[in-house]
Amino acid sequence: xxxxxxxxxxxxxxxxxxxxxxxxxxxxxxxxxxxxxxxxxxxxxxxxxxxxxxxxxxxxxxxxxxxxxxxxxxxxxxxxxxxxxxxxxxxxxxxxxxxxxxxxxxxxxxxxxxxxxxxxxxxxxxxxxxxxxxxxxxxxxxxxxxxxxxxxxxxxxxxxxxxxxxxxxxxxxxxxxxxxxxxxxxxxxxxxxxxxxxxxxxxxxxxxxxxxxxxxxxxxxxxxxxxxxxxxxxxxxxxxxxxxxxxxxxxxxxxxxxxxxxxx
Length: 264
Prior knowledge:
Elements: H1 2-23, E1 36-43, H2 47-60, E2 64-71, H3 73-81, E3 88-90, H4 94-102, E4 112-116, E5 119-124, E6 145-148, H5 154-165, H6 169-172, E7 176-179, H7 182-190, E8 196-200, H8 201-205, E9 210-215, E10 226-230, H9 237-246, H10 250-258, E11 262-263
Parallel strand pairs: 1-2, 1-3, 6-7, 6-8
Antiparallel strand pairs: 3-10, 4-10, 4-11, 5-8, 5-9
Keywords: Metal-binding, Signal
InterPro entries: ModA, ModA/WtpA, YvgL-like_PBP2
Protein name: Molybdate ABC transporter substrate-binding protein
């Protein structure tokens, strides 16, 4: 009888052990990040820096695929207004970002002013022109001047500001050729299809076939600000926010500074 009781106690004891074991939380499985694809629409002047940052970000977040779409800020903003599937917008002017913000197309709390830049006058590398200031563009020897289309290219808007600052706009109007973005203007200068062009200092620094003739005074044009933010229609809001946050990381800042941008 005692043996039977001992057996029953043992069975009950073992049952309790198994029951308690079953109540313990199961070991957490390692959570794997789901693949996500982001489309980044960025000002053309950011091309070199953003291409490098893309590689760095993929090392940190290998589950993310980044598609970089470069163009003039105004054109990119218009694409977003027309319903283009974009997750992050990086503009070369506060104006185009404000346009989208006012249209309620941006997640306002994600918008951050990231960078600054300078406006410069460039000439072909082998040019013999002795230009050292914007006001010398009135020289009859300068027959073609390339600038971005002011209605859609921020650096084109800044160029007009500088021309008006020096009171030369009316005198040089007939010499001006308008490009679709800053890279097109730079190409014209590099290939000597224009005598001079107005671009950002970062574009000039990245070129081996153009040289800086003059730098516009900071008070000769509107402040150059590069804001970035998440588009409200993004289907990958969390991932987009993470990417915009990364743009302010030490690693990203180092790349931007390498290409001559000012960190704001």
